[in-house]
């Protein structure tokens, strides 16, 4: 095959590729036109809903976009910025809050799903003048370094002790017919959803053990 044939073949290949790409794009353009989502159309306003929450003991009423997560409602609407946005995918635990007595990742749930719920954030556990015992223990045992994950860690730690008191088993609970023991293995397993990139895990365990009433 001479040079002319090679160039001709390459040109035909590029033309064929361009035609294929155009053909693939045409159905999506047609679909956009059928659903009224062309570029020139004015965007539709978001759907909003009223939500009533009891946050840190106070009744709060919001009117939010139905797509708003509980995390964003707390931070953006109520300005409770102690609850942190880390991964925004439920993997780091920085956004942990307590809802109706159970800890949840607030980035994974919508605010409208919790109408009437009681929500406790780090601001509701204690204040600088009157720390929650878990907050005081974290300070004492240096359970934080950069501090970004600390609000979620503390909310989780408070819930961990409550779970153990209620006899709720974890993945490492050996005997499901008896109440779980407050062991280091239990604490580490239950706290495993809260990531500390500074690596203060052993200090966090010591703080939790102290609040539980055992010696660290």
TrEMBL record:
SUPFAM superfamilies: 2Fe-2S ferredoxin-like (SSF54292), CO dehydrogenase ISP C-domain like (SSF47741). It is an enzyme of class 1 (oxidoreductase). Pfam families: Fer2 (PF00111), Fer2_2 (PF01799). The keyword Lipoprotein does not apply. Its EC number is 1.2.99.6. InterPro entries: 2Fe-2S-bd, 2Fe-2S-bd_dom_sf, 2Fe-2S_ferredoxin-like_sf, 2Fe-2S_ferredoxin-type, 2Fe2S_fd_BS, Aldehyde_Oxdr_Iron-Sulfur, Beta-grasp_dom_sf, TAT_signal. It is found in: Periplasm. Residues 49-125 form the 2Fe-2S ferredoxin-type domain. Keywords: 2Fe-2S, Iron, Iron-sulfur, Metal-binding, Oxidoreductase, Periplasm, Signal. It catalyses: an aldehyde + A + H2O = a carboxylate + AH2 + H(+). Its main location: periplasm. GO terms for cellular component: periplasmic space. GO terms for molecular function: 2 iron, 2 sulfur cluster binding; carboxylate reductase activity; metal ion binding. Heterotrimer composed of PaoA, PaoB and PaoC. Oxidizes aldehydes to the corresponding carboxylic acids with a preference for aromatic aldehydes. It might play a role in the detoxification of aldehydes to avoid cell damage. PANTHER family: ALDEHYDE OXIDOREDUCTASE IRON-SULFUR-BINDING SUBUNIT PAOA (PTHR45331:SF1), OXIDOREDUCTASE, IRON-SULPHUR BINDING SUBUNIT-RELATED-RELATED (PTHR45331). This is Aldehyde oxidoreductase iron-sulfur-binding subunit PaoA. It comes from Pseudoduganella buxea.
């Amino acid at each position: 095959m001479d040079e002319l044939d090679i160039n001709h073949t390459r040109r035909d290949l590029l033309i064929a590729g361009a035609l294929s790409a155009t053909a693939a794009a045409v159905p999506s353009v047609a679909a956009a036109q059928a659903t009224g989502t062309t570029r020139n159309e004015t965007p539709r306003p978001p759907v909003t809903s009223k939500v009533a929450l009891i946050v840190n003991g106070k009744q709060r009423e919001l009117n939010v976009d139905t797509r708003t997560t509980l995390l964003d409602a707390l931070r953006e609407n109520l300005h409770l910025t102690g609850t942190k946005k880390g991964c925004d995918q439920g993997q780091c635990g920085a956004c942990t809050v307590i809802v109706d007595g159970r800890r949840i990742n607030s980035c994974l749930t919508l605010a409208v799903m919790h109408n009437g719920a009681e929500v406790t954030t780090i601001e509701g556990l204690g204040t600088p003048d009157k720390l929650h015992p878990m907050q005081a223990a974290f300070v004492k045992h240096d359970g934080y370094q950069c501090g970004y994950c600390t609000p979620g860690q503390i909310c989780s730690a408070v819930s961990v002790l409550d779970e153990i008191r209620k006899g709720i088993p974890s993945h490492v609970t050996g005997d499901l017919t008896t109440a779980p023991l407050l062991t280091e293995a239990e604490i580490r397993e239950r706290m495993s959803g809260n990531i500390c990139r500074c690596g203060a895990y052993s200090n966090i365990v010591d703080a939790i053990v102290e609040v539980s009433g055992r010696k660290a």
